[in-house]
Amino acid sequence: MQTWQTVLLLLVLWAYLCSHGDGLRALKRTTGGRRGVALTLTGQDANGVPLRRSKRGWMWNQFFLLEEYTGLDNQYVGKLHSDGDRGDGSIRYVLTGDGAGTLFIIDENSGDIHATKRLDREEKAYYTLRAKAVNRITNTSLEGESEFIIKIHDINDNEPKFTKDPYFTHVPEMSPLGTVVMQVTATDADDATYGNSARVVYSILQGQPYFSVDPNTGVIKTALPNMDRETKENYVVVIQAKDMAGQMGGLSGTTTVSITLSDVNDNPPRFPKSLYEFKAPESSEPGSTVAVLRATDADIGRNAEMNYRITSSDGPAMFDISTNRSTQEGVITLRKPLDFERKRSYTLRIQVENSNPDPRFLRYAATTDEATVKLIVEDVDEPPVFDRVSYVMEVKEDSAVGTIVGSVSATDPDSSRSPVRYSIDRRTDMDRVFNVHPGNGSVFMLRTLDREENPWHNISVIATEFNNPRLISRIPVDIRVLDVNDNAPTFATYYETFVCENAKANQRIQTVSAKDADEPIGGHRFFFSLAHEVSGKANFTVRDNKDNTAGILTRRNSYSRLQRSTYLVPVVISDGDFPMQSSTNTLTVRVCTCDREGNMQLCNQEALVLTAGLSTGALMAIIICVLILLLIVVLFAVLRRQQRKKEPLIISKEDVRDNVVSYNDEGGGEEDTQAFDIGTLRNPEAIEETKQRRDIKPETLNPPIRRTVVLPPAYRDNSDVREFINQRLQDNDQDPTAPPYDSLATYAYEGSGSVAESLSSLGSVTTEGDQDYNYLSEWGPRFRKLADMYGGEDSDGYRDS
Hints:
By secondary structure, the protein is mostly beta strands. 11% of the residues lie in helices and 32% in strands. Cadherins are calcium-dependent cell adhesion proteins. They preferentially interact with themselves in a homophilic manner in connecting cells; cadherins may thus contribute to the sorting of heterogeneous cell types.
């Protein structure tokens, strides 16, 4: 292989030299140590006279060197020779520049140049060097320094490499033949200007017959039309790039291209079934879901979105259908309530279609599909239904108890037609003013009504199925109380005025108005007049103003405050309704001294108080309130004083058995060390056996005296009891943890030979003789009850047992 490449290189170099002019034909390169000739250039001047110029005496040109040399010796590059070299060794050749002395060396005697290392054109394509010939003895330059180039010839030592590996791309499904998928690119590091080492040709190794690749450009195209994603979605294509124009012996590289067919809307939605059947209870609320159905679409994503609609139904405006965008399901909902008794099933025709149809595929297949939905209504035991949404009733306020106000009606909507029972929701009628007949629903009065107290009554009537009391219905019933003329008109407010002593006759001193709790349809009309019994001797007159007011006028020219200071004028007020109602109201008139303009100057004390705006009743109410507050304060103070009194600790001095006396006394803290040793408490194990107790009276001044216990005469002969008590006393005296010396220690030890002997009745059953219990009376008051029970004898000689 190396010989073949060398021959080829020489042929290319020969063709290059032959293509140049005459001056270049005079150049002769020597290899293998051959001697060259001088380069001579010829030409003519402007007159056509030949000119002759001798080039300097270098006999060399540009050098060429093959890359990737694999020989064992240094690779020969060329030879430098000067015309002044006589072969006597007087000339020395010097080489400088790129790689001189390292990559390239020169024989300073012969001028031969060799490469010392293996060169790679892809790393550096050429080297620029400079050469000169110098006198070996004088080291002077014989020739001017000249520059030459060593060019590295390329060989096919690099395979093509793709810019990416692997490639990922996609192409729409159903694409026509020849649709461009993508372009792949491979590069070759070899010299593209020299031979075919860098000329890359593309081919497909895997992926036929679906795809093809352009051999020159690397463009991948579809090789089959209308590839369907739903049939096969992913393809793996292997592309090869080969240099040397694809000829045998060229180097190659491969890459993988993953191609995915992207979805297009080429499939319409389809129902899996043509008939669907659903059931829904008749108690379903409007807006609730009664059926859910789903069509399938082979497409994905946005192309699988669909819309549902109702094309026909035997229940107009009964149902709605919508699309659940997350699941693409058709959801059928109610618009109106279902009624099993009226209609037991419904039939709907549902159509589904693509939301985003592709016009390119509309001609291939139907874009919609239809299915039938049958909805069966299930019977549910429903509560009674009233014939109205609400009831409004009216009743006069003077109606008698038991009067029927109105009636309600409810029926069982189920086919069983269960009887209905009526009742009043007492939470809406706390005063029990009304009631309802349980059978026919008649609402009647239990109490008399007063419109002025409550003009409206809002109650609720409950209807319950007789066969199923849990099913109930409620309905509001509003009862309006109609007005009747049962109230007499009265003064609109309390009236009190004064009259001057120098008043003139027919002088108006007060204008009064009236009020009435009734509300007649035509409005109020009041009539005012002076009471008939005083009209003949009246000091004042009443004039009806015909506008529901009246004026109070003087009847004489003067009044005397000294003769009479107060007048009560009775005014009769009547209404215009039927039956007519009237009342007599009193106007209080005070006689006062006035100036000429009629301004009051002096009245009695009562008039002044009343003029200030406080009546006698108001003053009495204020006084009563003050007294009540004072009484409450006194009672509170008495209760607090009683609570502060403390009960005595001991009520009876004789009986102290059940009394507990508490002393709120506290020790002296850590400074009080008379009752205990703080060191012993901190270290109980360090107690000295000979250490005296701290809870008894100190005996440092007096020697310890052994205390003896003096027993009663009855116990002196009981040696066992005496030894027991002495032993316990000695133990307490030597115990440093014993309670204080003034504590009482009780021991439950009776001893043998007790004077009282045994009180048990178990031993008495073995004794047939009589026993004498009179000695119990000698034991003191505590045994008195026992002595009374056993010491006395019955009249017949038998003792109580």
